[in-house]
Amino acid sequence: MAIHLQNFRALRAGRHMVVCAAALILSACSTVGVLNALAPVDKISMHQGVAYEAGPRHQLDIYAPAAKDTHGAGGVPVVVFFYGGGWTSGDRSIYRFLGAALAARGVMVVVPDYRLYPEVKFPAYMYDAAAAVAWTRAHAAEFGGDPGRIFIMGHSAGGQIAGLLALNDDYLKSVGLSPADLAGMIGLAGPYDFLPLTNPVYKVIFGPEDQWPKSQPITYANAHAPPMLLVTGSSDDTVSPGNTQRLSARLRGLGDSVDVKVYPHIGHVTLMGAFSSQLAFLAPVRDDVLAFIAARTATASR
Predict the structure, then answer these.
(1) SS3 of 31, please?
(2) I want to staple 114 with a disulfide (CB 3.0 to 4.6 A). Which of 66, 80, 86, 128 is the partner?
């Protein structure tokens, strides 16, 4: 019995060490390169550097299931993914592992770049995001996607972008759409309620203090928002899991539909790494996202 207990403790310690190691190595660009190199290629088609508006930061990459894997005349579900980077950094090329992982499982993924600080401040990048969604709706069918089943998904700062698109109709309205045109929103460790601002750079990005509430998705929580899946890691020390808990509580209090997943011992970066097959053992985030998309797609088809 003692031997079994020692083995259990060793396994538990080993898992903790793997998670810690993954958090460290995923912070290096070289590891992202490895995940991208190992991403599936035989079941997907890729289209890189497609312009959705004029300008170098207005291009997107598309990862679509291979033609033989698309089902139904209406096409496959579509995810528009907004990456993080603190509104100051990020590049669509980093996320091939995510796009390929979902495309290989029947979901078309669009990863747009958007303008960053210091080129722009809030809310300029929100209009980039809205334009990318509008482009996707107009062109999804050309790549096998269903324009009637578009989900938006964002990690970290991208979660704020996705949250605002889903909750504040001003942005999508600017491109002739509304949150009602979205099949759902998926937030990955997003900052939805992060006031007061203390970072000097963020104070510049989000302008005068009396304007800060406009940058908070929770400000616009309402009972008619698209269905949401909000996920986070309990060990996230970059964006507090409290953001997810507070927004979900507000939405549920208003009667809106929201699913929440909190993964134990998972941090901010490992949450993203778990989309890859090599690190999927860390957390079932990929399966949970796919299940959410499948459930919402089934609901919409009834």
Answers:
(1) helix
(2) 128
